[in-house]
Write a structure and sequence with these properties.
single chain; 461 residues; alpha/beta; Fumarate Reductase Iron-sulfur Protein, Chain B, domain 2; Rossmann fold; 3 domains; six-stranded parallel β-sheet; four-stranded mixed β-sheet; 10 strands; 52% helix
Length: 461
């Protein structure tokens, strides 16, 4: 199974990296973000101080996560909400289906949420004859296309406006020359009917606020507000790592998330949900549930080196800066979370044996660490994952043998010089034949090594 996943990654990556049209779309869309993010950063009088403060708050929260989770549960429950502890995908889906069955619900509307992607919620709902409608425009597009999100922040980043127009022509019968405005208006009209008839609304959560028992959600389209307002039941599915201690911390994190995610000073709609509607209130859900999702997060929490990868606020900046992501795109990773952060956490969420290769999908240039708004040492954690795989014997016999030979040679210059260039090229051709894929030729070792060249050049007559 692990070799199948890796081989799929290598195959898809090779195709995408060689697809100039695909790379041009990613380059264009990411460049739009890069331009606005630079402007967004300029609003800070001391950006490094803001990042350091956010890093310290998140690190302290993760180090004391059990305390803050308990505090959140008490406060949210006191507000009339109900907390569901989901250790894995199976429990989360089961509890959500129970809510749907108990309320005889046949359709739900869903705001943008990576945790619902993580537990394959749409697939499970479909299997139980429940309609799930994505209401974020980007998510709606990829759902219509039968795909998964391409990016943590921008689900349809891999599609041009022409691609989207073609999709809506094929699926919805719209004119092939439909503009983005035409498509947005069409989807808006369609979704309004869904919002007013849905039994349940499902959202994610950008932050959990311990001291008020609140779920904070930031968005640009207003669909989350409608998901939480019209249906009589609101379910928020949130990873346990999304915790922050105090309401006063939110101004810092919302600002950084907006700046590094989209370059905005602040996103358009910012909501805090603390439970169902109270007596005297005229709108809001009659019931509200928060599903606190573990699903492998405590595996990471228990590792002293990796635990602060849970500081991540899912801004997507590391994806936008990563040369690998910009070359192969999001689907190649074969996981919910792509890019550097996905390559770090996915092996521990879904199995190191199956996904250890993702940590090799990095140039280790350090760009991801440089641009992270909460100062996560991402490139060091990628190296740690590689070391972890080797120490736990998860690398294959071929890799171990080739590295053994490489080490022997590199530690002994005489051995290196004794082998002819033909033999060296032969060995590389055997052990590293598929390393660079079928689009690039392996490098050829020259007849004279640099060591020999240097000695000959500086030989005294």
């Amino acid at each position: 199974m692990s070799s199948e996943i890796r081989n799929s990654f290598m195959k898809v990556s090779s195709v995408k990296a060689a697809d100039s049209d695909h790379r041009a779309k990613l380059e264009f869309n990411i460049s739009q973000y890069d331009t606005t993010v630079i402007k967004g950063k300029a609003k800070y009088s001391d950006l490094e101080l803001a990042k350091s403060r956010a890093s310290q708050i998140k690190s302290n929260t993760i180090d004391n996560l059990e305390k803050y989770l308990k505090e959140f549960e008490i406060n949210f429950t006191n507000n009339g909400g109900k907390v569901i502890w989901a250790n894995d995908e199976k429990v989360a889906v089961s509890e959500i289906l129970k809510i749907m069955e108990r309320n005889k619900a046949t359709m739900l509307v869903k705001g943008k949420s990576m945790t619902t992607e993580e537990i394959y919620l749409n697939k499970h709902l479909e299997a139980n004859n429940i309609e799930s409608v994505e209401t974020d425009l980007g998510e709606f597009i990829v759902q219509l296309a039968g795909e998964t999100p391409y990016h943590i922040v921008t689900p349809a980043m891999h599609k041009s406006k022409e691609d989207v127009a073609k999709l809506f022509n094929e699926k919805e019968g719209m004119p092939i020359n439909s503009t983005p405005q035409d498509i947005a208006a069409y989807v808006r009209d369609l979704l309004r009917k869904k919002f007013t008839s849905a039994d349940v609304g499902v959202t994610g959560g950008n932050f959990l606020i311990a001291d008020i028992g609140g779920v904070a959600v930031t968005e640009n389209e207003g669909n989350v507000l409608l998901c939480a307002s019209f249906p009589k039941i609101h379910i928020a599915i949130v990873g346990i790592e999304k915790m922050i201690p105090h309401m006063e911390d939110l101004d810092l994190f919302w600002s950084l998330l907006a700046t590094y995610g989209t370059g905005q000073h602040l996103t358009v709609y910012n909501s805090i949900f603390t439970g169902p509607k109270q007596e005297g209130e005229v709108d809001g859900p009659e019931e509200m549930y928060v599903v606190l999702l573990n699903n492998g997060r405590t595996n990471v929490l228990g590792d002293t080196v990796l635990r602060h990868s849970l500081d991540c606020i899912r801004c997507g900046a590391c994806l936008n800066g990563c040369p690998i992501y910009k070359s192969i795109g999001g689907h190649a990773y074969g996981s919910t979370y792509s890019g550097p952060i996905g390559s770090i956490i996915t092996p521990h969420y879904k199995g190191m044996q199956e996904f250890k290769h993702l940590s090799q999908a990095s140039s280790l240039c350090g760009k991801c660490t440089e641009i992270c708004p909460v100062k996560i040492d991402l490139h060091k954690m990628l190296l740690y994952n590689r070391k972890y795989a080797v120490e736990h014997g998860l690398n294959g016999n071929k890799e171990r043998f080739s590295m053994f030979l490489w080490k022997k040679g590199m530690l002994n210059r005489k051995i290196m010089n004794q082998f002819s260039s033909k033999l060296k090229n032969f060995i590389i051709g055997i052990f590293f034949k598929k390393t660079w894929g079928d689009k690039r030729a392996l490098p050829t070792i020259k007849e004279t090594s640099f060591n020999q060249f240097w000695r000959n050049k500086n030989r005294t007559p």
